Amino acid sequence: MESLEREAAYFFHTYKRIPLEIERGEGVYLFAKDGRRYLDMFAGLAVNALGYSHPGITAAIAEQSRRYIHLSNYYLQDPQIQLAGMLVKHSGYCKVFFGNSGTEAIEGAIKIARKWGSGNGKAEIVSFTNAFHGRTMGALSMMDRKKYREGYEPFLDNFRIVGFNDAQALAGAVGPKTLAVVLEFIQGEGGICPVTTEFADDLERLRKKFGFLLVADEIQSGIGRTGTLFGFQHYRVTPDIVVVAKPLGGGLPLGAIIGGPAVSEVLEPGVHGTTFGGNPVACAAGIVVLREILDRGVMGNAAAMGKRLEAGLKGLQKEFPQLVSEVRGFGLMLGMELTREGETVVTKLRDRGILLNCTNEKVLRFLPPLIVEASHIDETVGQLREIFRTL
Ligand SMILES: Cc1ncc(COP(=O)(O)O)c(C=O)c1O
Question: Phi and psi at residue 301, in whole multiples of 5°?
Fold first, then answer.
C-alpha cells in the first residue's frame, strides 16, 4: 500500500496504522477507498459517540465556522457558554475549564489540585497501576506501565502509584499529606477493568478521613458511554474534579475539567489558560453531542445496547471457555479478555467487515458509537462466534 510506505517515510514512528484507507464515514459505518464497508465497533477510540457524519454535528460545525472559527479566550463566546451550562446542569458540578485533549485536561486537574493544596501541606498525588491518563509528563508521572514511560525519566515529584483495586495498599499509601487520588473508575487502555464497589467505598471512606481531592478520569468512560453521564456514577462516590474529552467535541479536539465546590474558587485570572481550548466550532459540535446523548435518548440506547452486547459476549464466554476468560465493563464500554493475544481475532473480524480494537494484548475492547443498533450488536457477536469456531 503506497500510503503506508509514505507514512513510514514522513512520520515519527509512533502509530501502528491499520492497513486501511478510509474514504468516508456514515453512521456506524466506515467506507474504505476500495469500496468495502466496515461496521466500526470502536468509534475512533470512543470519540465518535454519534457515529460518522452526524447531520446535527456537521450542520453545527458549518454554521459556527461561518460565524467565527477562533476568537481567543479574551472574548465571551456563546457556544462555550452554552456547552459549559449544559455540563454544569447535567453533572450537578459548578465550574468548567475547556482544553483541547484528554491529557491536557489531566494536566489542568493536577494543577488545580496543586493550587488547592498549596499552603495546606498536602502534596502527594496517588494513582494506580495499569492506569492510562495520557502522554504528557504529568499524566505519565501517574502511570506505571513501562511501554509508556521507558526513556522519559525523570518524572514529576510527589507522585505515588498503588495497586489498582488493592484497598490495603491504598490505605497504606494515603494520609494527611495526600493531595489527590486520580482514578479511572473503569480503566480503558488498561483492559476495561472496573473498580470494585468495595474499593470505591474504601476510597470514599479514606477521602472523608484525610480530606484529599478525588479526581475521576472520565476521558474514555464519560459522556454517556457506560449508560450514565459518568462512569463513577456506578459507584457511591462524588469526585471533586472530573475530566472528560474524547466524545465531547463530536470529533473535534475538546476536553474539559469539571469541578465541584471544593475547587470552584481555586483559579483566578491568568493562572491557567490555553490558546485553542474551548474552540467555538468544537463547542458548537459539543452542544449537539450533549443534546443527543443526554436529552434525546442516546444514553438510554447505550445502556440498552450495552446490556445486549454484554449478554452476547457472556454467551460466547460460555460457549468458548477455553478462549474467553472474562467479560467486563459497563454500558458500551466492554472488554472481553481472551486466553490468547487478540490481534488475530481483530484481523479476522476486519476481513469480515467489522472494526474492533485490542488493548493490553488479550482484551478485545468494545467502544461502539452510542447510536449502535441491535442488528449491529448481533452481527458482531455472530461474526465473533464464527471466528472462535475456527480457532
Ligand atoms: C482514560 C484516559 N485518560 C486520558 C487519555 C488521554 O487523552 P488524549 O489522548 O486526548 O490526550 C485517554 C486516551 O485514550 C484515556 O483513555
Answer: -65, -40
